[in-house]
Amino acid sequence: MGRVTKTKSRKSATPPSHPKYEDMIRDAIVALKERKGSSRQAIKKYILTTFKLPDNTKTTSQLKLAIHKGVDKGVFAFPNGPNGTIKLVKKEPAKKEKKDDKPKKEKKEKKESKPKVEKKPKKTVVKKTPAKKATTKSPRKTIAKGATKTAVKKPAKKPTKRTAKTTSAEATS
């Protein structure tokens, strides 16, 4: 004879009384107002008290999963690494694309409608420099292409002051 099993009737899933975990995490980060981001413990505590969820492993794992999915989507960020604090990512406002014809025409019309103010020309002052007198050059020797220049020797450095130890040693010898 075969096994007799009881079939359980499935209940229709009731929607949860709380919003999505991602939304709850976002609300928690905004409400905590921490500059460097909020810790997981602080977020969990806020969610448990605000939305009256049970503190069990299912809630903890759902929270962790929601955080990682949010990071993948670009909603949250880990500024101090994956085990650190959690911040909201600021979305940059979408730049509007310029339409070709309309904005250009409007700008031209605005520029043409403004009355132009005539500017007075600036006076430029020209300084006259006195004429330089011709100076006589001292006769220099020209060096032939193949010849080399002789190096000028620098005078030797003056000896530095000797300490008392060296002078006493020299005096005894």
Automatic annotation (TrEMBL):
Basic and acidic residues composition-biased segments: 89-118
Compartmental location: Chromosome; Nucleus
Example of a GO MF term: double-stranded DNA binding
Domain H15: 17-90
Basic residues bias (residue ranges): 1-11, 119-143, 151-164
InterPro entries found in the cross-reference section: H1/H5, Histone_H1/H5_H15, WH-like_DNA-bd_sf, WH_DNA-bd_sf
CDD domains xrefs: H15
Transmembrane feature ranges: none
Keyword Nucleus carried by entry: yes
GO cellular component annotations of the record: nucleosome; nucleus
SUPFAM superfamilies per UniProt: Winged helix' DNA-binding domain
Signal peptide residues on this chain, from the entry's feature table: none
GO biological process: chromosome condensation; negative regulation of DNA recombination; nucleosome assembly
Main location per the UniProt record: nucleus
Protein origin, superkingdom: Eukaryota
PANTHER family given in the database record: HISTONE 24-RELATED (PTHR11467:SF36), HISTONE H1 (PTHR11467)
Official protein name in the record: Histone H1
Originating organism: Paraglomus occultum
